[in-house]
Amino acid sequence: MEGFELSFKNKAVRVWFCTMLPAIILTIVLTIVLPNEQSRYVSLGLSLVTILYFVWFVIYSKKKRK
């Protein structure tokens, strides 16, 4: 198995910081601001962003190996 480089030279790390970090910050802010009844929608949104990132990562990894 190939090692994982944790630097901004790695495209997967850059995409994670550009997608996941703002989503996490937005989730924290919306959880504080919105009433408790709507917190499930906020966590659902973060879950969708996480799933989309990992789908992209799997496709990117397969394409990179070819």
UniProtKB/TrEMBL annotation:
<feature type="transmembrane region" description="Helical">
    <location>
        <begin position="12"/>
        <end position="35"/>
    </location>
</feature>
<keyword id="KW-0812">Transmembrane</keyword>
<protein>
    <recommendedName>
        <fullName>Amino acid permease</fullName>
    </recommendedName>
</protein>
<keyword id="KW-1133">Transmembrane helix</keyword>
<keyword id="KW-0472">Membrane</keyword>
<feature type="transmembrane region" description="Helical">
    <location>
        <begin position="41"/>
        <end position="60"/>
    </location>
</feature>
